[in-house]
Amino acid sequence: MPRSLLTRYTPRSEAPEVQPFASISDPLRDFRHAAWRLKTRRGHACDRNSPTWQRFLAGEDITRDPDNALRANVRTQTTAGKRFERVRLVDEPATQRQEFLPARVPGNAAASEDIRDLTRAKAKRLRLRLRLPKSVRG
Fold this sequence. Notes:
With 138 residues, the chain is α/β, with parallel strands linked by helices. 41% of the residues lie in helices and 15% in strands.
């Protein structure tokens, strides 16, 4: 992604609060076949406001955290035959925030979400490109 886009569209405020699942749940419940995401960011600002992030920084094991509303929904949807899939672009070496996310994968995978990583270097070798809508490209 061009640096100018990041500069122009990056929020200039404090890290947002983590939103409760109920406030964002409709698209994650009302799909027909698959909920697929391509995650390209090196981290999320809201992670810094998460109690789980603080525990991760303190060296606590967060891989076995109890179920939450999102995981319960993934389990419900996959039981109904729908798929939750995610591909994350990661750096080599991974950023601290990119290390945080895989620490949460065991709980998400146990809920039947398919999560895969693709290094930025491999994406470049494969000549994968993120196509932005013209309205975002400017």
